[in-house]
Amino acid sequence: MCLVAVACSAPAPATPAAETPAAPTSSAADAGQSKPNRLFLPQDLGLIEAPDRAEWWKPELIMDELTIAEGDKVADLGAGGGWFTIHLARRVGPNGRVYAEDIQPLMIDALSRRVRREGFTNVETVVGTATDPKLPAGSLDAVLIADAYHEMNEPARPEVILTLLGNIARSLKPQGRLGVVAFLPGGGGPGPALEERVDPDSVTTTMSAAGLTLEKREVVPPFLYLLVFGKSTARADSR
């Protein structure tokens, strides 16, 4: 995936039949290592690096809605090539920390090169799994999943996304926030195929099952929506 990771907006091209990879073994699946469907391929990163991307992704607005500030510790899940990671690194500054996570090592390689090229020292790359992003427990102010939720969610195996979300929740501080940015279903834009887009109500239902409560729902015009979730226990403790 690209948690967060951030962040794949074009469907991967079909793999030639002669190059179709072997199916994962049952032991890999049992260990939570199986990959979700529709992974964005590292060689296609150029498809989502359009010069005007910031104009319709509006990263400053998204980070404002997540109240990400200088000195924060945050994570970009499904970070892909690191487009949003760089925006997060600028926002949190040298006293903050960005954990850029992806389950594809080749994506992490591409992201690491970008981070070095742009001179950031506050980014730590993490190779996660489909069920565990391997983030530090109880230490993050915010986690962002930008256009990667549809890759993490396997409708035929709901336990995968629920386990992943449980691990994300454990990485958050008591008042930490999880943001999901995705393309509006039925809308236009350069995002994934319409059948791959996820209805925001479906995301909210799954988050609730994982113990996360919807705090904010915003449209990021013209193509995206943002959902912000908090830990249910944090809200209960504040009463």
List the SSEs and their pairings.
Elements: H1 26-30, H2 53-57, H3 59-65, E1 73-77, H4 83-92, E2 97-102, H5 105-118, E3 123-127, E4 140-146, H6 149-152, H7 158-171, E5 172-183, H8 200-209, E6 212-220, E7 224-231, H9 232-237
Parallel strand pairs: 1-2, 1-4, 2-3, 4-5
Antiparallel strand pairs: 5-7, 6-7
CATH topology: Rossmann fold
Determine the N-to-C terminus distance: 37 Å
Question: What is the annotated CATH architecture?
Answer: 3-Layer(aba) Sandwich
Percentage of residues in strands: 15-25%
Widest β-sheet, arrangement of strands: 3-2-1-4-5-7-6
The H/E string reads HHHEHEHEEHHEHEEH
Number of strands: 7
Rg over alpha carbons: 17 Å
Structural class: alpha/beta
Rounded mean pLDDT score: 82
Low-confidence stretches: 1-36, 42-47, 234-239
Largest beta-sheet details: 7 strands, mixed
The portion of residues assigned to helices is 25-40%
Q: Number of DSSP helices?
A: 9
Oligomeric status:
single chain
The total domain count is: 1
CATH class type: Alpha Beta
Under CATH, the homologous superfamily reads Vaccinia Virus protein VP39
- Give the overall shape: globular
